[in-house]
C-alpha cells in the first residue's frame, strides 16, 4: 500500500500482541527488509530470535551455510515471521526460511510494497 498509511504501525502491534499473549507460535520474528535487502542482516535477526549458539553461528562463513543452519532450526518450529518494508520479491529459502504450509502451521506476514 501507499507510504504513511500505517503498515509498519500495524505490524508492530501484531508483533507486540504475539510477544505478550499466549499463542500457538514457538518463535515470533520481526525483520525489516528495506529497499535494498541485506540477506545477511536479516539472517542475523533470525539467528538472534532462534538463539542459535554463537559458536555454531560463527563457524558458518557463507550466507548459504547460515541459511542451512536457520532452515535446520526453523523446520522444527512453528513460527510467525513479520517482514516490514518489502519493496520487491524476496527468496525465503535464500535466508533459510521454510515455506509455511499446513503441516508446519507457520505464517509469514508482510504488507504490500508502496505503489511508486
From TrEMBL:
InterPro entries: NB-ARC (IPR002182), P-loop_NTPase (IPR027417), Plant_NBS-LRR (IPR050905). Pfam families: NB-ARC. Gene3D superfamilies: P-loop containing nucleotide triphosphate hydrolases. One of its GO terms (biological process) is defense response. This is Resistance protein candidate. Coiled coil: none annotated. The keyword ATP-binding does not apply. Residues 1-112 form the NB-ARC domain. Keywords: Plant defense. It comes from Vitis amurensis. GO terms for molecular function: ADP binding.
Amino acid at each position: 500500500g501507499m507510504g504513511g498509511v500505517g503498515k509498519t504501525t500495524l505490524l508492530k502491534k501484531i508483533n507486540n500482541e504475539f510477544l505478550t499473549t499466549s499463542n500457538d507460535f514457538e518463535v515470533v520474528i520481526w525483520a525489516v527488509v528495506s529497499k535494498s535487502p541485506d540477506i545477511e542482516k536479516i539472517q542475523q535477526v533470525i539467528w538472534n530470535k532462534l538463539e542459535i549458539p554463537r559458536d555454531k553461528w560463527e563457524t558458518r562463513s557463507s550466507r548459504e551455510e547460515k541459511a542451512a543452519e536457520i532452515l535446520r532450526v526453523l523446520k522444527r518450529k512453528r513460527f510467525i515471521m513479520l517482514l516490514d518494508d518489502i519493496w520487491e520479491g524476496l527468496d525465503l529459502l535464500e535466508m533459510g526460511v521454510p515455506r509455511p504450509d499446513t503441516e508446519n502451521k507457520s505464517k509469514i506476514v508482510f504488507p504490500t510494497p508502496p505503489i511508486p
